[in-house]
Design goal:
This protein is an all-alpha fold. The protein is about 70% helix and about 0% strand. It has three helices and no strands. The longest helix is centred in the middle third of the chain and has 39 residues. It is elongated and about 60 Å long.
Length: about 110
């Protein structure tokens, strides 16, 4: 049951997280902007470097890069969802949300 709740929450937050990045409330931190700019500066250098490699080496590096991008995306989504969980828990601890019988806080449950 607990995993089902968190899975549904993850699906919902994943859709919310994927909304239009042009919306006014979309957060773009200075660190993000700096990293994006750094990548833009290195992207052509990356493409040029790939051209110096054999087809097999290029394929392997692209596979590694894709795996790293997938991992970074999963980390970002996890951090995004953790922020929501932390927010809900903060609201609960402030007395603004109440626990109900169908949903218990994780720290109150015995995890196997």
């Amino acid at each position: 049951m607990l995993n089902d709740v968190w899975l549904k929450m993850a699906e919902f937050l994943g859709r919310l997280n994927g909304e239009s990045v042009s919306r006014e409330s979309y957060v773009r931190t200075p660190e993000y902007e700096k990293a994006l700019e750094a990548w833009k500066e290195k992207e052509q250098e990356w493409e040029d470097f790939l051209e110096t490699l054999s087809a097999g080496q290029r394929e392997k590096l692209e596979e590694i890069k894709e795996c790293q991008e997938d991992f970074a995306s999963a980390q970002e989504l996890r951090a995004y969802m953790q922020g929501y969980v932390d927010c809900v828990q903060a609201l609960y601890r402030m007395g603004l949300l109440k626990e109900n019988e169908g949903l218990k806080w994780v720290e109150k449950m015995k995890l196997q």
